[in-house]
Amino acid sequence: LTRERYSVRRLPFSVVSEDDLAALERIVPGRVITDPEELEAPNVDWLRTVRGSSKVLLRPRTSQEVAHILRYCHERNLAVSPQGGNTGMVGGSTPVFDEIIVSTALMNQIVSFHNVSGVLVCQAGCVLEELSRYVEERGFVVPLDLGAKGSCHIGGNVATNAGGLRLLRYGSLRGTVLGLEVVLADGTILNCLTSLRKDNTGYDLKQLFIGSEGTLGVITAVSILCPPKPSAVNVAFLGCPGFAEVLQTFCTCRGMLGEILSAFEFMDAECMKLVGLHLHLACPVQESPFYVLIETSGSGAGHDAEKLSGFLEQVLGSGLVTDGTLATDQRRIKMLWALRERITEALSRDGYVYKYDLSLPLDRLYDLVSDLRARLGLHAKHVVGYGHLGDGNLHLNVTAEAFSPSLLGTLEPYVYEWTARQRGSVSAEHGLGFKKKDVLGYSKPPEALQLMQQLKALLDPKGILNPYKTLPTRT
Ligand code: FAD
Ligand code: MLT
Ligand code: ZN
Q1: ipTM score
Q2: Rounded to the nearest whole angstrom, what is the distance from the C-alpha of residue 374 to the centroid of ligand 1?
Q3: Domain ranges across the chain
Q4: Which of 278, 357, 398, 427 to mutate to test the pocket of ligand 2 (most atoms within 8 A of CB)?
Q5: CA 42, CA 57: separation in Å to the nearest integer?
Q6: For ligand 2, atom 6, which residue shows the shortest CA distance?
């Protein structure tokens, strides 16, 4: 849990003084946290791989308070680390040194919901699962879902451009987020919180902040388009004999389920072993080298069931699938989803986790997992592959008893070079944060990197917003 593992030096920001604490206390009275015990959790990331040493956490309630905080920090040259649910996978949400943590935990108000258009406007600190519940009671769904829903904030989701389990159906947040309110580094409030589907007036500035991981501004409110809640949902959990069959099942599925397909996820046998071992979840089908989870969402239960049974007959009959189970009731649907959603948790209980989140061409998606398994042999505890197959997104994870520089040396830059050769992405959905900032160059040309640095300098000339994150260390 040390930063020494990564070579990084503190930049010459000011150090928080007693006078600063008094000034911050005037901005957010009673919500300046300096108790070391309370600061323990927000200084450590979800994976417990990085630790900061911040001595101050602020809990603003309004955009105006965030603006006052940033105006003050900008003037005093104090660095800030924005934090939502602290579920990020790349060490982006925790301070690196003594940055002030600005938490959105108390910014959890729903501003409005329009029950014809489905447009939800809310503060950035709303927890995803709570938003889900709110709109579902009104006949809609949030177009985003992920395993961290119980803790992650919508602002954090937008800041990371989180992908998740519904992207196949509803697309990326770059399409469903209609507007944002953002506080810039100097405290300026940028109000682009519109709810329009179409708006081609000038540059689409909100896109700059989606996926910017707290380095360009603090997102304070979000306007998001929620689709109607599907009335018929089915989940099929299937076993496949090989990865070629997984791909064939995906092709067949797209052909036969077309417009009702809402998720296509996969996991390998090692993942299933780990969710069994660490979470005591039972495999619902015969043991197989691969498993796929297919979800359909539609408006006619009878129509969807008919389509699904035709599809199952086809894949079982042709040997693409060797065993399967189907769920139509909420409880069983949840149980099947848990097998896939809780892999992250099972892995974290297995030891130190080296995480890779790659976009790769579908036909090569699993090659790297097999390759690494052979390459690492007994040096790794487990090498697993799972992910959002329907989006071409592989989660390649390697576990070991503890962090080891030599294992890291075997994995990197090998994994990144392999990915770059396939013209893939070294971060499909988790972002770069602190841990991946220096690998951006594997997926973007130098001209793109330079423009990113220029945008950063324009929007945050003093570099106080989430320093040491996202952009490569300048040498
Ligand atoms: P945090 O972790 O607090 O912050 C993440 C980044 O955003 C940091 O750089 C932080 O500085 C910045 N940030 C946070 N809030 C703001 C704000 N208001 N303004 C500006 N910057 C801000 N990710 C996926 O993409 N798909 C998945 O399927 C997925 N599944 C997950 C499952 C589990 C079990 C876990 C633990 C994580 C998963 N993640 C997934 C990763 C993570 O949940 C997402 O990245 C999530 O969107 C982060 O939200 P958060 O509120 O926890 O943000
Ligand atoms: C997932 O799809 O489960 C998440 O992105 C988290 C992870 O990669 O472990
Ligand atoms: Zn994922």
Answers
A1: 0.99
A2: 32
A3: 18-106, 110-225, 232-343, 352-433
A4: 357
A5: 8
A6: 344
pLDDT of residue 7: 81
Task: Identify the pLDDT of residue 4.
Answer: 55
CATH number of this structure's domain 18-106? 3.30.43.10
CB 180 within 8 A of CB 158: yes
> What's the CA gap between 177 and 155, in Å, rounded?
11
Question: Would you state the CATH architecture of domain 110-225?
Answer: 2-Layer Sandwich (3.30)
**Residues in the chain, overall count:** 475
Give the number of other Cβ atoms within 10 Å of residue 8's Cβ. 16
Instruction: Give me the pLDDT at residue 458, please.
Output: 98
Strand ordering across the sheet containing 110-113: 110-113, 119-123, 218-225, 177-183, 189-192
CATH topology of domain 352-433: Alpha-Beta Plaits (3.30.70)
How high is the mean pLDDT in each 10-residue block of the chain (475 residues)? Answer: 71 98 98 98 97 98 98 98 98 98 98 98 99 98 98 99 98 98 98 96 98 98 98 98 98 96 98 98 98 97 96 98 97 98 98 98 98 96 98 98 96 98 98 97 98 98 98 82
Which residues have C-beta atoms less than 6 Å from ligand 1? 46, 81-89, 92-93, 104, 124, 146-148, 152-153, 155-157, 159-160, 162-165, 213-214, 218-219, 344-345, 429-430, 433, 466, 469
